[in-house]
Every structure is written in C-alpha cells, then in structure tokens.
Amino acid sequence: MPYRYLVFHKPYGVLCQFSCPEPGRQTLQDFIPVPGVYPAGRLDQDSEGLLVLTDDGALQHRLTTPKFGHRRTYLAQVEGLPTEAALMSLRQGVVIQDYHTRPAEARLLADPPDLPPRDPPIRYRAAIPTAWLELTLTEGKNRQVRRMTAAVGYPTLRLVRIAFGALTLQGLTPGNWRPLTAAEQRTLLASTPSTRHADRSLQR
Fold first, then answer.
1. What is the pLDDT of residue 80?
2. What are the C-alpha distances in Å from 180 to residues 11, 42, 199?
3. What is the pLDDT of residue 196?
4. Per DSSP, what are the bridge partners of residue 156?
5. Whole-angstrom distance, CA of residue 114 vs CA of residue 169
6. Any idea what the CATH number is for the domain that residue 78 is in?
7. Catalytic residue numbers?
8. Which terminus of the chain faces fewer neighbouring Cβ atoms within 10 Å, N or C?
9. Domain CATH code at residue 22
C-alpha cells in the first residue's frame, strides 16, 4: 500500500494533534478523516497555514530535523513598523534564549497579503500601526518566528505558514485538506532522497 501525503490549511485555534484530553478543543481529527497520518512538523494553536501530514515515518523525520534545512515561508503581521536594521538582524540571525538562529530571508511587504480573515480577528488598535513581513527559515524550532520578531522589537500578532519547500497553500481555504499530486510527491521525496520508496511512495 502506498504512503499517504496530505497538505492541510490549519485554521487558527486548532491543536496540531489528533486527540486532546480537554473537551471542546478542536484538533486535526475534526478536519482530517484519514487514519494513520501525522504532522511532519507542527504549528502552534495560535498559528495558521500549511501543514504536511504523512504516514511515511522516515520522511517525517527528515522534514522535521533542522540539519536538512527545509525552507518554511511565513507571513507575519507584527506590531509596529519594522526598520531596515530590524530586518537585517533577522537576516543575520538573532539570539532567542540561548540559541542563535540561522540567517533568514526577511522582507517588509508593501501591502497586506490576500489572506482569509482570521476568526477571531486581530484586535485593532488605532494608535499602534501594524505591518506584514515575509520570512523564510530553514529550521523550525518552537515558536521561532514569534520569538525572532519579538527579539528585534516587533511582536507577532498573526502568523501564517504559506509554504513548505515547493508546497503552498494555493487553492486551500482554512480547514480544508487534499492529497499531494504525484508531481508534488516526487518533488517532496526528491528533497529528502533517503526516504524514497520506489514501490510505495506514489499514490495510485
């Protein structure tokens, strides 16, 4: 039986797991009726966006191990208007707790991105402007984007992962998922060559 590879647009407030001891909390089980798959990497409850799920354990390991350097791209709405100096700090890497992050790609967006509205929306405060950053990281430590923007003085208010390698959210609205196409599977497995399974990887 071939391995299964899915992409999911995780909404705000959904726990990145299939079970929860607390009643009333939404989890992946409320959206994805596919047994045996698990997230390759996580998104915090208050983060949104692209999540890859699979039952290919070797691929999960390589996608979540920092040394393999898989690119993750995020849109972050931050409090305040970041300076060029702050962006340069993000590009060079910043210290969060006792760890120095890898250099990141960081740019200030001229206009807000075309994203579905968040439910609930970000609290609007007329006296405090906000801005949107596009950030691409090659590591995925716990709450890393939020800690990085806070470290340079601009706390993150909303965070959406829009891409994982070549995979994007295109065509997916919050709460929806789909299997990867055969071409997407080939691209994903080519980026993690030791996980290829010639007889099982591609869906029929």
1. 96
2. 19, 18, 17
3. 46
4. 78
5. 12
6. 3.30.70.1560
7. 44
8. C
9. 3.30.70.580
